[in-house]
Design brief:
The protein has 278 residues and is of the alpha/beta class. The protein contains 8 helices and 11 strands.
């Protein structure tokens, strides 16, 4: 598919608003949420609203966010119980007013032109329901890499997605009105199940290899839900079983992708073990 060109003012935020609602699932992330919000403030295309769904942090960690309310049209939704990121995303989705939903995790951040690039591309190709892109791990010792322009988005096939998740949750921009949601209460690989089911049910998805989302910890084995490698692996295997029951995969395909997933898990486990020894 076609390309989007980055502008020269890639670090200058504008007051231009869009039809985008940003949804952030939140759980006791006071030390990092400010970084995520600042990356939204720096967007060259501003969202119409930012919705933080507090997944029952129950520690007063969001009381200080009043300062952002006017600048970002910030709304905070408090959940009465902890149900995981899938349910939190769905709650924010239902309350969103934008034509497009962009998801960001509380401990991550965005390239300044992420929203503009994705939004303009999806407006140009209205048949595409979901887009995503690559991520990059950054730190003080490893700052963000420059993103080369133009940025290309390409269709994602079922086979590509089964072999590798090209649509991580903190990169997603989704048409608000598609009749599909994250599976409530699923805590591991819920985002992977969502994009796999969307693609298998005929929704067109596209991805870019440009890393427009910044991660401040390794994707696996660092902290949070991603630190439990085996639970994540079980969650991914459940995805293939679910897709089999839904008629999206044959038995042979389910067995093949499950075996491939176990191989990837063993490789991750080895790499994380090696990293922890250093």
């Amino acid at each position: 598919m076609n390309k989007v060109t980055l502008s020269a003012a890639s670090t200058t935020s504008t007051s231009t608003a869009s039809a985008i609602s940003v949804v952030i699932p939140y759980f006791r992330a006071r030390g990092v949420i400010c970084r995520a919000l600042k990356s939204i403030e720096r967007q060259t295309l501003q969202p119409m609203e930012v919705i933080i769904v507090d997944d029952y942090s129950n520690d007063g960690s969001l009381e200080w966010l009043d300062a952002y309310s006017s600048r970002l049209n910030l709304k905070v939704i408090a959940c009465p119980e902890n149900r995981g990121p899938a349910t939190a995303r769905n709650i924010g989705w239902e309350k969103a007013k934008g034509l497009y939903i962009a998801f960001l995790d509380a401990d991550d951040a965005w390239h300044p032109e992420k929203l503009e690039v994705q939004y303009q591309w999806m407006k140009t190709y209205p048949s595409v329901a979901i887009t995503g892109h690559s991520t990059q791990v950054v730190s003080s010792a490893c700052p963000p890499k420059d993103i080369k322009s133009p940025i290309y988005f390409k269709p994602v096939s079922c086979l590509q997605l089964m072999l590798k998740n090209k649509l991580p949750p903190q990169t997603l921009m989704i048409k608000r009105d598609i009749p599909l949601r994250f599976q409530n209460d699923k805590r591991y690989s819920e985002d992977y199940l969502f994009v796999c089911e969307a693609l298998c049910r005929g929704f067109t998805c596209a991805a870019s290899s440009s890393p427009m989302t910044y991660l401040y910890k390794e994707a696996y084995g660092a902290s949070g839900l991603s630190s439990n490698l085996w639970e994540m692996e079980k969650g991914e295997l459940e995805v293939y079983r679910y897709l089999l029951k839904a008629g999206c995969l044959t038995r042979v395909e389910q067995l093949f992708f499950s075996a491939y997933s176990v191989v990837k898990f063993l490789r991750r486990w080895f790499l994380v073990s090696l990293r922890n020894k250093i």
